[in-house]
Design brief:
The complex is a heterotrimer of chains A (665), B (482) and C (205). By secondary structure, chain A is mainly alpha-helical. Chain A contains 26 helices and four strands. In chain A, 74% of the residues lie in helices and 4% in strands. In chain A, helix 2 packs antiparallel against helix 3 (110-129), helix 3 (110-129) packs antiparallel against helix 4 (133-151) and helix 16 (397-412) packs across helix 20 (529-535). Chain C has a two-stranded antiparallel sheet with strand order 1-2. In chain C, a hairpin with a 2-residue loop joins strand 1 (199-200) and strand 2. Classes of the chains: A mainly alpha (665), B mainly alpha (482), C mainly alpha (205).
Amino acid sequence: MLEALVFLPLLGFLAAGIGNRAIGDFAAKLVTTGFLFVSALLAWVIFFRQWGGEGAYTVTLAEWFTSGTLSVSWALHVDMLVAVMLVVITTVSALVHLYSWAYMADDPSQPRFFAYLSLFTFAMLMLVTADSIVQMFFGWEGVGLASYLLIGFWYRKPSAWNAAIKAFVVNRVGDFGFSLGIFGLFLVFGTLDIGAILAAVPAHKGTTFDFLGSEVDALTTIAILLFIGAMGKSAQLGLHTWLPDAMEGPTPVSALIHAATMVTAGVFLVCRMSPLFEAAPAALALVTFVGAATALFAATVATTQHDIKRVIAYSTCSQLGYMFFAAGVGAYGAAMFHLFTHAFFKALLFLGAGSVIHAMHHEQDMRFYGGLRRHIPLTFAAMTIGTLAITGVFYTAGYYSKDGVLFAAYARSTEPALVAFSVGLFAAFLTSFYSWRLVFLTFFGEPRWAGSPHIAHAHAHDAHAEAGHGAHGHGADPTAGYHPHESPPSMLVPLVLLSAGALFAGLLFHQAFIGAGEAFWAGSLVHDPAFYAKLHEVPALVHWAPAIAMGLGLLLALRQYVLKPGAAEDFVRTLPTLHRFLYRKWYFDELYDWLFVRPAKRIGRLLWTGGDQGLIDRLGPDGLAGLVGAGAAVARRFQSGYLYFYAMMMLVGLAAAMTWLALKG
Amino acid sequence: MTLLQSLSVGAPEVVLAAGICVLLLVGAFRGDRALEGLSWASVLLLALAAVPLFDQAPGRLAAWNGLYVADAFSRHLKLLVFLGSAAAILVAVPYLRRLATARFEYPLLVLLATLGMAIMVSAQNLLSLYVGLELMSLSAYVLAAFHRDESRSSEAGLKYFALGALASGLMLYGASLVYGFAGSTSFADIAKAFVAGEVRNLGALFGLVFLLAALAFKVSAVPFHMWTPDVYEGAPTPVVAFFATAPKVAAMGLMLRLLYEAFGGMKADWQQIVLVMSIASMLLGSVAAIAQTSMKRLLAYSAIANIGFALIGLAAGTAAGVEAVLLYLLVYLVMTLGAFVALLMLVDADGRQLEDLADLAGLARTRPGIASALAIFMFSLAGIPPMFGFMPKLAVFSAAVEAGLWPLAVLGVLASVVAAYYYLRVVKIMFIDPPAGVVVLPGEQGVNPAVVGAAAAFSSPLGYLLLGPLAAWGAEAARALA
Amino acid sequence: MIQAAIFYLLAGATVLAGIMVISARNPVHSVLWLIFAFVNAAGLFLVIGAEFLAMLLVIVYVGAVAVLFLFVVMMLDIDFATLRAGAMRYLPLGLLLGAALSVELLLVASAWEAGAIAPSAPPRSGLSNTQALGTLLYTDYVFVFQAAGLILLTAMVGAIVLTHRERAGVKRQDPFRQASRTPAETIALARPAVGAGVETEGGVR
């Protein structure tokens, strides 16, 4: 069953990828989506069996490689932690597949798109079910590849392939840390089997190694290296720059990869290796700080962005920060719970945004939206539910998980944890503000579509068609005569299902994920029931704080964007520096450009013109090619066709050999 | 040792010789219309002659007063030679018939050459070595000029004959020098006379050089290669397919046996000569092929380069090297045979053979089957993994590196890279260039498609499936020698 | 002593003849010099007491091969001047090559020491040269003897392949058919009407 779950997406990928145009759009879509739904069904079965106490197990598929003492096999491992991920991945993936039927309906290369989606899902499943860290790295790189392919799916668009390359390169920095971590693991533990490593952690606690003359704690180093890998994949502060750009990919991709699944791989890694991190307190503190900083940073940036997808992307970044600091304070269950609920409401928000974009003819700038609630009411409802969930309105999914994270930080009450708590609280206020800002800008107020080049473009087509019966102009009509239409059912069904998830996932599962019971996680991650019990005993002020922050954010957004339109512009005018700082994303891209990209390009250019062209090409390929050509010409001339010449060459060879031997001896 | 014993140990040759006489009589009475029947009978005869190879007791069996030996090495090479010859006989039938030169002597001449080769690889004496070589060569000269009415073919035969006679002269001269200094023509006695570590005997050394030169001529190693492109271009294509395969295998086998069994004590000296020939052959073969416009000339230079690669294993002078050479010969035989037979299947509307590279343009569209097979052969000859042709190259290179001759291996890899260029150019012409407008007719092809298919399967990655038994077989043969 | 004198005389003449073979301007002269070289070589065989080989050389090489050469050369009008024209360009290289080879062969000659040869198979007593050769050829060396026979067979087959042509329409005698034909198939009696003639071979005679 597990094998089927993991390999069905691969089959789908092969069928759609190899079949491509030969099998046609419909077959490719049907095969990939069908397989994914079967996978999702199996995932839920496995999830409930695990919940029922089936216990962890491993399915060995084949030997992979053996080299000296290093032996790695292909094996699928399942425990509660993995089962949660399986559910998230396959469910969201299946819904995204379905959603894409309509969203990508006009695309000329749909089989390729669906093949990539299935490939991604397979790689992600390999990542989470990995029994050895090497196999996890395989999946890790696999999802990176799929992400690259999907971000650059519209490869004719320069911004798309630029974003794809950026994502790949930035991830490479993280992957470098991850691979160093793998080397370290093998060095210290002598095995790459995750179970064996985790079992051996207590024995190696306190191991040190010599680095540049100073003793360094081995486990801390490894944990930090692994966390660097996680930072890259999960877009944490410093390595986050690729995620907003990744929004160049089709929106379903953003929902699947850059919101619900791949970016949470880092969180999963930390949770999967939680015994290791527990043994390295310094690394945990780093995780907490980085998580909290990301949560704050991304939330501030999200308040100023205009592109609807970028807002959600920064929101994702911020929520990932929450998960990390939850893990950092030792509340791995809370981190996983937030991951779980976040997958639902963030996928919902993205798919909702996709629905809006679909309705607005690929316009993504919120400044050209407005008043859409009357035109696309179902999308409006879905987006509102998503916003309720992400801001943590009572009894929605976000309410349980985000409060759980914040309470955990408070309950841990170490210094980093308290910093994280206060930062998280402020970020919750910002979250509420930018999320409602998005809703208000998009669905309320007057239509502002006229300025949109996309709409104008679309309309020009229509006007052209209507030119026959006289264009009497729409004058100052802010809708520019455009009528947004609700999306087709295949896009709405996933929205409805995800809405249900966003509303009820918290209510249903919070006892299990972050309750005081030991039973649910069954040892798949470090889970301290006593600590979780404290979550329910936080002071009343703390208990109500997230709700208050959320309420303040809502009120502020309401005032700025609904009650007093124009207030936002006034604010920008009063504090232009702050706004620009946030709008330019704290100048991270500029900094990196100045610090890395340009020097790298300069060095590259120098090596290219000086080293490659000047030295290697001239002496190497070009020179050799010329030499070979000249040699061929000489050989041709030697092959004169004259018998006596041939005979003489033989004698020359003979005499040369004899002379040489005679002189040598 | 009685005559009966000798007859039984030398059964393959005896069967062949007797069979040739019978078939010659049949041919003389039945005339040229017996060609097809004679061809199949010849293949049957070869199969019959191969039976004792499987049947003989393991180990060395001497016969004919020590002139002849049957061991694992000779059995290995004989089987290869018989295989190559049988293929050369069968694939020629449709060709000869198409060009109205279907004469019954063709299979018989191939059989006579095969008999010569069998004697060569079993030779234990300079005398048997020489008669074997001459028997093969004389048949080959006639075969090269088989299309006697075509000036190219006659020219090829004449050139081959004249230069071959020179090589024979060199060989006799060398043999007499060796006889003069060793006092015997038997390999065992020569080995006893020239033991390693003693004072270098210049006479024997020169004799060795002469012998090596003559053998190098047969395997077309540089600088004794000059005949190869001209003869390959002029001779009929099935004959070239024969030249490029079985005689090369036999001559290389003879060279191995002579150098190891008779001149093992002078290894340090011959190693250097072989080394230089190997480098020169690889480089010249790879570079000169680039400028060729005729497919047959291109394959001729390919043969020169490949012999250079095979000589690497000999230059290494180790058991692993011998093994590598044997594997190289085997795979090379199949690949080259396949390439030539595929070429043989390309006929234009007038029944003429297509031999120019330009004629292959767009072949992938007109004859996708042949084009894919040729592409496999080209990739395999270039030694590009995962094709099977990669394996023997790897084996000779690693043998060279193990023997400390890593510069030779580096040069070999370099030559492979250059060679890959022209092999891949053929693929490019077939698959990317627009069709040349030459109609390639399916026509009557006999067993050729089957031969090409089998060779292509062997040269493809499927060949690795056979690697285990083949390597074990080759190792056994190599052990018999060293 | 006298044996040595004769040896050097004959050997010198052989070498001289060899040089003349390749330097004579007239090909017929070349062949004649070749015959001279063969005869001298036969003399050398006689000096070491191999009278059978000497006779063979005279009969086969002089009597058959060389004479055949002579016929061929005389019948084919080969213009050696044009053939040589190209070769002359390589004369310096050729000379250099010749010099190098000669020096090396001299080196070999100096390296030869008497006694290095272990005399193989001492001649059996009581046998003439011819008998001794025969016993060796048909016993110890029967393998190479038979192989040599096959070489000759190949040469024969080759000669036929390369030169024999069946020309259609050539009138020639076929003794077998001639002898085996019967009156029934060759004689036909006819009684033609006056002025009608007899129809034969498609025509009226």
